Amino acid sequence: PPREFNWNVGVILLVLTLLLSFTGYLLPWDQLAIWAITVGSNMARATPLLGHEGPGAQLLVLGDVKMVHAGSDARFALLGGRFVGEGALLRFYVLHCVGIPLVAGILMAVHFWRVRKDGGISGPL
User: What are the residue ranges spanned by the domains of the chain?
Assistant: First the structure.
């Protein structure tokens, strides 16, 4: 169906909204923010295939070399290190103010263009 793509773009926009909320949470740089991001980034450690504690991480092994380990998993990529520090604050600030809004703006333009191209919003059935 022609609107399936647009629905998927909307779901991606929803996830980006949640990421905006998550990255903005660290910006006050207080104890509550640091511990909230620590807990949230620890959840990223258990992500399937991307986190070294998650299901499927042991499947990504070449010989004796683990492709996903504590220094290359989703948490490390998110924080830019092993702990929440100044590097994580800078990374979250740039993601919150530039990266995610730029991607969201492009996807919103695609989303609105597809709504118009598909004939607008249909009325109630």
Answer: 4-117
